[in-house]
């Protein structure tokens, strides 16, 4: 007999299989940009999780890591606040 999975588990597995959004760019003040900005930042999405959550890593425009990876909701992906 085939194994049965709960609908919630199947939905979570499907959500994690979706394509990841591309890099998200920000200017030096944390405003979203359409393309890389010199002196700005970018956010790389490393992994998608259930319930529209993502593990992300932020970088300076020159490629150096800005902080450590973190988990964000879909609504938080395009919000960036640079720290002095």
TrEMBL record:
Identify the stretch annotated as signal peptide in this record.
Answer: 1-21
Keywords from the UniProt entry? Signal
**Key word Signal present:** yes
Top-level taxon of the source organism: Bacteria
Q: Does the keyword Signal apply?
A: yes
Name of the protein in question:
Lipoprotein
Native source organism of the sequence: Conchiformibius kuhniae
């Amino acid at each position: 007999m085939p194994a049965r999975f709960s609908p919630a588990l199947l939905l979570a597995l499907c959500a994690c299989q979706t394509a990841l959004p591309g890099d998200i760019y920000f200017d030096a003040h944390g405003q979203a940009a359409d393309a890389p900005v010199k002196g700005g930042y970018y956010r790389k999405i490393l992994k998608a999780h259930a319930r529209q959550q993502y593990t992300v890593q932020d970088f300076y425009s020159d490629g150096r890591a800005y902080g450590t990876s973190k988990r964000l909701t879909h609504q938080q992906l395009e919000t960036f606040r640079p720290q002095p």
